[in-house]
Structure formats: structure tokens, C-alpha cells
Specification:
Blueprint: H1 2-31, H2 35-66
């Protein structure tokens, strides 16, 4: 009888742990961005870096050509 009680307690604990893991997995997936969003963010960062680099090159050419 004692082993049956212990077995039931272990089953209940495992079920509670599974529920907690399911909730945790659901909240983690909710925080993830879609691949399209990640691509657009990366593309925007690359464009911004290229724009800043082109401005820097233009300023350097302007300064060196003026003297």
C-alpha cells in the first residue's frame, strides 16, 4: 500500500512538472521573433551601416579635395 501511495505522489509531481514546462515553453516561444522580422531588422542594420560609411567616405573626399 505504501508503494502505491508513493507511486501516485510521483505521478502527480511529474504531471505538475510537465504542466510547468509546457507553460515555460509557451512563454519562450511567444517571445521569439519570426524569421521575416529578424531578416528585416538585420537588413535595416546593414543599410544603416552602409549609409553611414558612404557619408564618411563623402566627407573624407570633400575635405581632401578642398585643400
Amino acid at each position: 500500500m505504501n508503494s502505491n501511495n508513493e507511486l501516485e505522489q510521483v505521478k502527480e509531481r511529474v504531471e505538475r512538472l510537465e504542466q510547468k514546462l509546457d507553460l515555460l515553453a509557451g512563454s519562450l516561444q511567444g517571445n521569439r521573433r519570426s524569421p521575416a522580422t529578424r531578416f528585416l531588422i538585420g537588413f535595416g542594420v546593414v543599410l544603416a551601416v552602409l549609409f553611414i560609411l558612404m557619408i564618411y567616405i563623402g566627407v573624407v573626399q570633400f575635405v581632401s579635395g578642398g585643400s
